[in-house]
Amino acid sequence: xxxxxxxxxxxxxxxxxxxxxxxxxxxxxxxxxxxxxxxxxxxxxxxxxxxxxxxxxxxxxxxxxxxxxxxxxxxxxxxxxxxxxxxxxxxxxxxxxxxxxxxxxxxxxxxxxxxxxxxxxxxxxxxxxxxxxxxxxxxxxxxxxxxxxxxxxxxxxxxxxxxxxxxxxxxxxxxxxxxxxxx
Length: 183
Fold this sequence. Notes:
alpha+beta; five-stranded antiparallel beta sheet; 5 helices; 5 strands; 28% helix
Protein backbone atom coordinates (compact mmCIF):
# COMPACT_ATOMS: atom_id res chain seq x y z
CA UNK A 1 0.00 0.00 0.00
CA UNK A 2 2.18 2.80 -1.24
CA UNK A 3 -0.36 4.85 -3.17
CA UNK A 4 -3.53 6.51 -1.93
CA UNK A 5 -6.28 7.26 -4.47
CA UNK A 6 -9.10 9.78 -4.48
CA UNK A 7 -12.01 9.42 -6.92
CA UNK A 8 -14.15 12.35 -8.03
CA UNK A 9 -16.31 13.87 -10.75
CA UNK A 10 -13.94 15.23 -13.41
CA UNK A 11 -15.92 18.44 -14.02
CA UNK A 12 -15.91 19.34 -10.33
CA UNK A 13 -12.36 18.47 -9.37
CA UNK A 14 -10.96 16.55 -6.42
CA UNK A 15 -11.49 16.92 -2.69
CA UNK A 16 -14.79 18.80 -2.77
CA UNK A 17 -16.20 17.85 0.59
CA UNK A 18 -19.82 18.08 1.74
CA UNK A 19 -18.60 18.02 5.33
CA UNK A 20 -16.85 21.36 4.82
CA UNK A 21 -20.18 23.06 4.13
CA UNK A 22 -22.76 24.30 6.63
CA UNK A 23 -25.54 21.72 7.05
CA UNK A 24 -28.16 23.61 5.00
CA UNK A 25 -25.77 24.22 2.11
CA UNK A 26 -24.60 20.60 2.16
CA UNK A 27 -28.24 19.50 1.96
CA UNK A 28 -28.80 21.77 -1.06
CA UNK A 29 -25.81 20.24 -2.82
CA UNK A 30 -26.98 16.70 -2.00
CA UNK A 31 -30.48 17.50 -3.30
CA UNK A 32 -28.94 18.81 -6.51
CA UNK A 33 -26.97 15.56 -6.87
CA UNK A 34 -30.13 13.54 -6.25
CA UNK A 35 -31.90 15.38 -9.06
CA UNK A 36 -29.13 14.38 -11.47
CA UNK A 37 -29.77 10.66 -10.77
CA UNK A 38 -26.72 9.63 -12.80
CA UNK A 39 -24.29 9.03 -9.98
CA UNK A 40 -23.95 6.86 -6.90
CA UNK A 41 -24.42 9.82 -4.54
CA UNK A 42 -27.90 10.41 -5.97
CA UNK A 43 -29.04 7.28 -4.10
CA UNK A 44 -28.05 8.52 -0.65
CA UNK A 45 -30.84 7.93 1.84
CA UNK A 46 -32.53 10.53 4.02
CA UNK A 47 -30.40 11.18 7.08
CA UNK A 48 -27.18 10.56 5.14
CA UNK A 49 -25.56 13.90 6.00
CA UNK A 50 -26.38 13.64 9.69
CA UNK A 51 -25.05 10.08 9.88
CA UNK A 52 -21.94 11.04 7.92
CA UNK A 53 -21.12 13.87 10.35
CA UNK A 54 -21.78 11.54 13.29
CA UNK A 55 -19.44 8.87 11.87
CA UNK A 56 -16.75 11.40 11.03
CA UNK A 57 -16.83 12.70 14.61
CA UNK A 58 -16.69 9.15 15.98
CA UNK A 59 -13.75 8.26 13.71
CA UNK A 60 -11.94 11.45 14.75
CA UNK A 61 -12.43 10.72 18.44
CA UNK A 62 -11.29 7.11 18.07
CA UNK A 63 -8.25 8.24 16.07
CA UNK A 64 -7.28 10.82 18.70
CA UNK A 65 -7.61 8.14 21.39
CA UNK A 66 -5.00 6.11 19.48
CA UNK A 67 -2.60 9.05 19.29
CA UNK A 68 -3.74 10.46 15.94
CA UNK A 69 -3.19 14.16 15.30
CA UNK A 70 -6.08 15.31 13.09
CA UNK A 71 -5.99 18.91 11.94
CA UNK A 72 -9.32 18.98 10.10
CA UNK A 73 -12.62 18.46 11.92
CA UNK A 74 -13.89 16.25 9.07
CA UNK A 75 -11.71 14.13 6.80
CA UNK A 76 -11.09 14.07 3.11
CA UNK A 77 -11.45 10.56 1.73
CA UNK A 78 -8.99 8.41 -0.15
CA UNK A 79 -8.50 4.67 -0.56
CA UNK A 80 -5.47 2.46 -0.11
CA UNK A 81 -4.55 1.25 -3.57
CA UNK A 82 -6.44 1.57 -6.81
CA UNK A 83 -10.15 0.71 -6.89
CA UNK A 84 -11.60 1.17 -10.37
CA UNK A 85 -15.12 0.39 -9.09
CA UNK A 86 -15.16 3.80 -7.38
CA UNK A 87 -14.93 5.56 -10.76
CA UNK A 88 -18.37 4.14 -11.54
CA UNK A 89 -19.81 6.28 -8.74
CA UNK A 90 -19.45 9.29 -11.04
CA UNK A 91 -20.83 10.26 -14.45
CA UNK A 92 -17.28 11.05 -15.59
CA UNK A 93 -15.07 9.62 -12.86
CA UNK A 94 -11.45 10.53 -12.45
CA UNK A 95 -8.76 9.71 -9.90
CA UNK A 96 -5.71 11.33 -8.42
CA UNK A 97 -3.14 9.41 -6.45
CA UNK A 98 -0.48 10.42 -4.01
CA UNK A 99 2.31 8.43 -2.48
CA UNK A 100 1.81 7.58 1.17
CA UNK A 101 5.04 9.42 1.96
CA UNK A 102 3.28 12.70 1.01
CA UNK A 103 1.39 12.49 4.31
CA UNK A 104 2.22 12.63 7.98
CA UNK A 105 0.95 9.24 9.16
CA UNK A 106 -0.35 10.94 12.31
CA UNK A 107 -3.00 12.62 10.15
CA UNK A 108 -4.26 9.45 8.43
CA UNK A 109 -6.77 7.02 9.87
CA UNK A 110 -8.05 3.88 8.15
CA UNK A 111 -11.14 1.72 8.14
CA UNK A 112 -11.28 -1.72 6.54
CA UNK A 113 -14.13 -0.72 4.27
CA UNK A 114 -16.20 2.44 4.13
CA UNK A 115 -17.11 4.23 7.38
CA UNK A 116 -20.82 3.48 6.90
CA UNK A 117 -20.70 -0.34 6.85
CA UNK A 118 -17.77 -0.36 9.27
CA UNK A 119 -20.01 1.24 11.90
CA UNK A 120 -23.38 -0.13 10.81
CA UNK A 121 -25.42 -1.67 13.63
CA UNK A 122 -27.06 -3.87 10.97
CA UNK A 123 -23.82 -5.70 10.22
CA UNK A 124 -23.34 -8.26 12.95
CA UNK A 125 -21.00 -10.66 11.15
CA UNK A 126 -18.28 -10.74 13.81
CA UNK A 127 -15.52 -9.55 11.51
CA UNK A 128 -12.73 -8.10 13.62
CA UNK A 129 -12.54 -4.86 11.67
CA UNK A 130 -16.18 -3.83 12.29
CA UNK A 131 -16.44 -0.76 14.49
CA UNK A 132 -12.70 -0.07 14.28
CA UNK A 133 -10.55 2.85 13.20
CA UNK A 134 -6.89 2.07 12.60
CA UNK A 135 -3.64 3.98 12.56
CA UNK A 136 -1.19 3.35 9.73
CA UNK A 137 0.81 0.87 11.83
CA UNK A 138 -2.38 -0.96 12.83
CA UNK A 139 -3.82 -1.32 9.32
CA UNK A 140 -0.70 -2.97 7.88
CA UNK A 141 -1.12 -6.33 9.71
CA UNK A 142 -4.80 -6.34 8.76
CA UNK A 143 -3.87 -5.89 5.09
CA UNK A 144 -1.33 -8.70 5.43
CA UNK A 145 -3.98 -10.93 6.97
CA UNK A 146 -6.88 -10.20 4.62
CA UNK A 147 -5.44 -8.38 1.60
CA UNK A 148 -7.06 -5.44 -0.16
CA UNK A 149 -10.85 -5.77 -0.44
CA UNK A 150 -10.82 -4.38 -3.98
CA UNK A 151 -8.95 -7.54 -4.96
CA UNK A 152 -10.75 -10.27 -3.00
CA UNK A 153 -14.20 -8.62 -3.09
CA UNK A 154 -14.14 -6.81 -6.43
CA UNK A 155 -17.89 -7.19 -7.03
CA UNK A 156 -19.11 -7.04 -3.40
CA UNK A 157 -20.08 -10.72 -3.26
CA UNK A 158 -18.35 -11.28 0.09
CA UNK A 159 -19.63 -8.26 2.00
CA UNK A 160 -19.75 -4.47 1.91
CA UNK A 161 -16.01 -3.88 2.21
CA UNK A 162 -14.77 -3.06 -1.29
CA UNK A 163 -11.73 -0.94 -0.36
CA UNK A 164 -9.75 0.35 2.60
CA UNK A 165 -10.90 3.87 3.30
CA UNK A 166 -8.31 6.43 4.33
CA UNK A 167 -9.51 9.41 6.29
CA UNK A 168 -7.14 12.31 5.57
CA UNK A 169 -7.21 14.77 8.47
CA UNK A 170 -4.90 17.42 6.97
CA UNK A 171 -5.28 19.68 3.91
CA UNK A 172 -1.58 20.43 3.55
CA UNK A 173 -0.58 17.47 1.32
CA UNK A 174 -3.65 18.12 -0.86
CA UNK A 175 -3.37 21.90 -1.28
CA UNK A 176 -2.24 21.76 -4.90
CA UNK A 177 -5.21 19.55 -5.78
CA UNK A 178 -7.99 21.30 -3.85
CA UNK A 179 -9.97 23.85 -5.84
CA UNK A 180 -11.01 27.08 -4.11
CA UNK A 181 -14.73 26.36 -4.52
CA UNK A 182 -15.23 23.43 -2.18
CA UNK A 183 -18.34 21.31 -2.02
